[in-house]
Amino acid sequence: MIAAAVLVGTAMLCHAEGTPTVYVADRGNDGAAGTADAPLATLYAAFRALPAGGRVVICGPLHTGAVTLPKSDGLITLTAVDDSVALSMSGNIVFQSAVELENLRIVTTAKNLVFLCGGNYARFGEGLTVTASGGDATLPGITAGSSGSVSPDGAYLEICSGSWHRVRGGARGTSSAAQNGDVYLVIRGGEFNSTFDLGGDSATAGDAYLYIYGGSFAASVNGASAANIEGDVYITIAGGAFSSTVRASRGGNIGGKVTWNLLSDAAKTISLGSGTISGSATVNLAGGVGTTCSGYTVVNISAAEAAAIGAADTATIEAAKEAKLPRALNAFGERDTTPGGSTKKVELAIPNNLGDVNGDGKLSLIDALCALRMTDSGAYSERADAALTGRVTVRDAVAICRAIVGGASSVVPEIAVNEISDTLSL
Question: What span, in angstroms and rounded, lies between the C-alpha atoms of 213 and 238?
Fold first, then answer.
């Protein structure tokens, strides 16, 4: 693969295995290139250097105070070179776009810190080690929603590892704006040492979904917190370990129905809790599950029905994840698909002479065709990645065509765009 890099601000994006990557450590400088040998110095600068998404790699000890990280049009993965280095946090970290954390050691040095995900796609993946160090420091919490006057449209939070203090699906703070849209929490692992709420500190306006496949819960697990959930509450327990109360609400009212799917007997008892439930309260109980269900209508389900619920849950999770993950730019929505088409100005450019896919030193339709073949096969070439998104899409082929026929002022026959997109079902 031919190496490529592009300047964004003052940082150079190194394309590591197709993913734009920047390195960061305390020893760095925010005016540096962002390479492993010349890292940036702050998380803010690292995220700012990835406006279209990519990977931030911590390559030495890194300390951060409270920070609201810049927005990105793509997914950013935050990780570390190995577990000998850690992200030390003394303030809250606020994400404004889609993010994944994986293979990372996190150390808190103050109490009641939180990762605020702002309603964006957020996945705390595998390989997270989370500890508190010094004085009255506590483990960090995670809030899927936001805080203050911001009211995001729904939320998707997935947790696979790590040790955490309080987890919320909705907003943080009783005076915060209500969480709009539907909330999805997916728990596959991790340790939860304080209250776990599917809802938030203020009202949740939509429906709320919780899927538990693993993890250990030392404190209560609740649908609604002390604040209301205006829609339905849907909870599946297919694994995990529970040491305390599991209930529909710890005080807030639920405006719709409550449905539990108990596919394992990890929870010994579930209750309605305190709070009014306007709709029905039902438990679908798989065979062999001995959970005591207080106050619910219990429906005993067969193995086939349990499997169908599991499959439906998987489909719902994937749809929720897809809805929250960043979309490719310039998807040519609302295009004219009539015979003959129209013309449409495509605001794309190919920086640093990218686009010469076949390496013959010039741009031609052969390069565009090569890029199209890659979109169909899933192959990757940095030369074909004209839009610098870390993958090859129809957008790259169109960008190459545009460069061939006249650069920034050119127009591309939209019928060609239609045929490309429809043929490849993109």
Answer: 5
